[in-house]
Design brief:
59 residues; mainly alpha; 59% helix
């Protein structure tokens, strides 16, 4: 058990950094919308409520 404790003491900052990064990724990522067509998108825009549009591309 002392080997695990020594590993934790030596690498605590790095482990906590990557754990915080993983938690932030899961908590802050955006979810896909349920809009399936251009017509549905136009309907949502013309409902009279503010809308935020994100454009995403893998390229």
């Amino acid at each position: 058990m002392s080997g695990l404790a020594a590993f934790w003491r030596e690498n605590r900052a790095i482990i906590l950094f990557f754990a915080a990064l993983a938690i932030a990724f899961v908590a802050l990522r955006s979810s896909p919308s349920d809009i399936g067509s251009v017509d549905e998108f136009a309907e949502v825009l013309h409902q009279g409520q503010p809308s935020i549009v994100y454009f995403y591309s893998n390229y």
